[in-house]
Amino acid sequence: MVSCRRFAQVYSSDDEEDSLAKMLSQGQNSRRPKETMEGKMRKRKKVSLNEESDGEEEETERKKKKDDEETPPKELDPDDAKPVGEPVKVTGRGTHYGQFEYGGNRYKLEDSVLLHLEDNSLEPYVAIIKDITKRQDGSMMILVQWFYRQEDAKKKDGGKWVVNDTRERFYSFHRDEVPAESVMQRCVVNFVPAHKQLPSGRGFIVRKVYDTVDKKLWKLTDKDYEVAKQREIDLFVDKSLARLGDLPDFETEEDVEKAKRFSGKVKKPHVDLRKDKDVFPISSEYHSILDKFDSLTDNSHRNECLAKLLEAVQSICFNAGDEANDESFLWPDAAVSPVCALELAINVSYASDYSKYNQRIRTLAFNLKNTALLAKRLLSGELEPEKISNMSPTELKVGLTNEETEKNEPDDAERMQMTDVRCSRCSHIKVGLRDIVQAGHRDRYQLECIACGNSWYTSRDEVVSSSCRY
């Protein structure tokens, strides 16, 4: 017998479009907000997260269909959202598009966006656009899939979920149809597995999936979702890691203890040559070079890794007889010694873990090949091999250490407009204006404390009343 997988699948095929709302999110739907217009100001419609029982959902669906049949086409306003491009398909619910335009901005399917709220909360909702429909009455509606805030995700036994970062949201398979005019702006959402360290900078973070039926949280790496949903989560994780780069793993207590046991006692890596024999197949060209310079070790796997690193720096070198410049390095004379020193540093640091040794070789070979500055600094001796072997993925990507990057960049206080607002978390008056979100006739200010990293949204009146420094 096949066990039931988590979360029922939400479909949106042509044959099922007329009953889409009935299948959305296991009995969850949204209320259609009232439209408002003040003078010539751009309209901004509001949305809310609702949970209805099955009976209430069916009644809502019947009323919606009846309203759609009885409501005549409305007169379009220049400020209304408009479809862009050719229709994707036409169903009983309306005409479907791949993009729409609103407020001078263009939005497309799978965009992550902020949505205007129906309540008075200053922090907007976050969702992904899954469908764009122009109804028969001319109104533009979008089907969105929600990211839950901590306060919106209910626990089955009551209480609140604990999050470690104010940017964190919970992904869900709850979908609602809302007016296109409720969109405020695009945003960035990064799906980060639990074993990876959180990235710095802007953007929301997703580490768990909220089950709106059982009121539980699941990890992104859990493998008992429905196949389509697991594929969707895996795709988001892959896209996020590709955008963020190689995020370092969290260092567990077991890793720390293992490092202490082997610290100062390492002579040779414990390598099982029967496994991963051809991880780094060695080229006869690089083997000959290492042999010529008497740089081969008594371990064939280490020799393969030496050849891999040597190949990575070859592109910045010149051959004898070629025209050279001041920053060029003679191949292979200038490359062999620094590369051997780098491999030795990696061997000393990761000799106790064959897998981590291989992973570090791959990471350094990739960055030496693609970051010319890093390779040049290795061959010139500007960066010590021991220093390079311990650099983070972000440092390797730019070829600079964090200390060097901080010297070249202005600090947060110089980049942001500072205010006199006091941080509610650490009580320091080191709060800057990170962003201004346009929300109709009301602007929301995103503030960030440079002392503790706390970030929140507030109104303009609160900032002004705190004597903002210009």
TrEMBL record:
Q: Name one Pfam family in it.
A: BAH
List, alphabetically, the SUPFAM superfamilies matched. Elongation factor TFIIS domain 2
Can you tell which superkingdom this protein's organism belongs to?
Answer: Eukaryota
Give the TFIIS central domain ranges.
301-424
**Per the database record, which ranges form the BAH domain?**
105-221
What GO molecular function terms would the record report? Answer: chromatin binding
- Where is this chain compositionally biased, Basic and acidic residues type? 60-83
Query: What is the name of this protein?
Result: BAH domain-containing protein
